[in-house]
Amino acid sequence: KVEAQYMNGRWYAAKIVEKRSDGMFQIEWDDGDQVDRTKAAKDIRRALWKEINHHDFLLLSVQKFNDSGDEFSGVPPPRHNIRKICCRAGLLVDRIRFIMADGSFQDWGNDGGEECTPFVLNDDEVLTEIEVKHREWASHKGQ
């Protein structure tokens, strides 16, 4: 799975079906569109985010360091219910985006300045619990 830049300049989900001898790529759009299907390498990128449809995740606890360097834990208020979880699909995941019920979001991962070990997320895999450097999330419905 990749994203390709459509003629309107936006990126959309696609898959590469052929690498041509002239260096161009033949793609298929995920939505079935038959227009603008021949792309140069510069117009193709790995799929960045996949939205996982778990709307019942609740941030259970946060363990972090305060300004003095002391570690502390706490249960966040209800406004921190997680509505969506986005991460890279089919690739090594090194960043996860949590979108909160109030529309705010937090990114955690290597490029967010915090360490985490990349893992592989398969397209059919169901997330039930995530732990990223002293932060734990789990579905309160157990799904």
Please describe what this structure looks like.
- It is a single chain.
- The chain is mostly beta strands.
- The protein folds into 2 domains: 45 residues, SH3 type barrels (Roll), CATH 2.30.30.140; 90 residues, no CATH class.
- Helix content is 0%, strand content 48%.
- Strands 6, 7, 8, 9, 11, 12, 14 and 15 form an 8-stranded antiparallel beta sheet that branches. It has a 5-stranded antiparallel beta sheet with strand order 4-3-2-1-5, with no helix packed on it.
- A hairpin with an 8-residue loop joins strand 3 and strand 4.
- The radius of gyration is 19 Å and the shape is elongated.
- The C terminus is likely disordered.
- The end-to-end span amounts to 26 Å
The number of domains is 2
From the alpha carbons, calculate the radius of gyration and give it in angstroms.
19 Å
Note poorly predicted spans.
Answer: 51-80, 111-116, 126-143
What is the residue-averaged pLDDT?
62
Overall outline? elongated
Number of helices: 0
Tally of extended strands?
A: 15
Q: Which structural class fits the helix and strand makeup?
A: mainly beta
Beta percentage is over 45%
- Biggest sheet overview: 8 strands, antiparallel
**Helicity range:** under 10%
Element order: H for helix, E for strand: EEEEEEEEEEEEEEE
Please describe the structure with a list of short key phrases separated by commas or semicolons.
single chain, 143 residues, mainly beta, SH3 type barrels, 2 domains, eight-stranded antiparallel sheet, five-stranded antiparallel sheet, 15 strands
